[in-house]
Amino acid sequence: MRLSVAFRADCDYLELFKSLPIRSPAIAAGQLMAVAAQVTALQAAVFFVVGTIFPASGPLLVAATVFAIQVNLLNYGIEDCLFLWYPTRLQFGRGANFLQAGRMMLFLLVKGVALVVCCGAAFSAGGLVFWLTDSLLLAGFVSWCVLIPASVGVVILVAHAFDRLDLATDHGD
Known about the structure:
Order of helices and strands: HHHHHH
Shape: elongated
Distance between the termini: 21 Å
Oligomer: single chain
Number of strands: 0
Strand content: under 5%
Number of helices: 6
Radius of gyration: 18 Å
């Protein structure tokens, strides 16, 4: 199931967003942080329920909750960036739209590769720290800190894509 969130969900309001006297990084951060916070809150609730059922998994679930906000921000940021670069509405109707299906598969591939690269770099750095220090807490902290530039970078990238979006030609239809 594909959720329409952030800029994709607000496709009809892009003209309004462009006319606001707010800088694009603030708009991009607001769009992305709102959805990332909501999804992270839902994940934290699920982690809490799982933690009460299986108390031994508590530390792992706490770590997953700490990383969830950044991973969600990366996930939705990459998706929004791709949408702003190549805006189109999802159209549901009779018959198969092979172009739309191909586009969705290509976007999923790009998003997956970007997430693997960002998270792989973070967890590789954490693994190196764990190997050197045998401290799981320090390794997790280093991994989390390595994800910060990627999270900030995706917000900046979405803001840049929003700035470059020309509503006269890129109308999302």
